[in-house]
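Researcher: Quick one. two chains, 217 residues in total.
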Amino acid sequence: MDYQTMLAWALPVGVGMAAIGSALGLGRAVGSAMEAIGRQPEAAGKIQTAMIIGAALIEALTIYALVVFFILQGKIGG
Amino acid sequence: MTKNSDANINFVGRTIRTTGIVLLVFLPFGFYYLGTFHALAIFSGGVWGIINLIFLSAMVRAAVRPDGADTRRVASVGLIKFPLLYLAGYFLLKVPQFDALFLLIGFSSLIAIMVLKSLGRLLLGLDIGKNGEHMQKAI
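Model:
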C-alpha cells in the first residue's frame, strides 16, 4: 500500500473519528449542563457561559481536523 | 443577579470584542510584515471564528435554558450556522490566495484570547464570590 492510498484511507477515518469524539463531548457537556440547570436554575447564566466556552473549544478541534483534511486532500493524486 | 455574575455572562461578548480589536490592530502590521494575502487570511479566519462564536452562543442560550429550549430560535440559528457559515468557511479555504495555515491562525486567535482572558480571571480571582465560593462550586 503506497503513501497516497494510506492517506486516502486515513483522511476520512480521521475526520470521522474527530466528529464522533466531538459529538460525544458535546453530548456529555449539554447533558451535564441541563442536569446542572435543573438542580440550580439560578446559576443558568454561569452554566451557559461555561457551556459556550466548552462547546467553542470542542467545535474548534473538529474544525482543525476538517482543515487538516482539506490541506492533505490536495496531496492525494490521481 | 449580582454584578459578578453579570460580568460572567458577558464573558463571551467581551472575548468577541477583544478578538475584533486585536484583529483590527494586527491588520496593518500583518500587511507590512506578512503581506496582503496572509494578513487578510488571518483577519478572515478571525472574523469567521467571531461569527461562529456569536451563532454558537445564540444557539446555546436558546437551547440550554431553565424554562425549556426555544426550538424555533435553535432551528433558525442552526439553519444559518450550519449550512451558510460552514459553506462560507469552505469557500474561504478554497480561495487560492489564502493559505489554510493563516486562516487557522486567525481562527485560533479567538481561542487564544478566550484562554488568556480565562487565565486572567482565574489569576485575579474575578469568579470568586463574596462568600469565597468559586464558580465551579456554584455550578
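The two ends of chain A are 15 Å apart (CA to CA).
Researcher: Thanks, that's what I needed.
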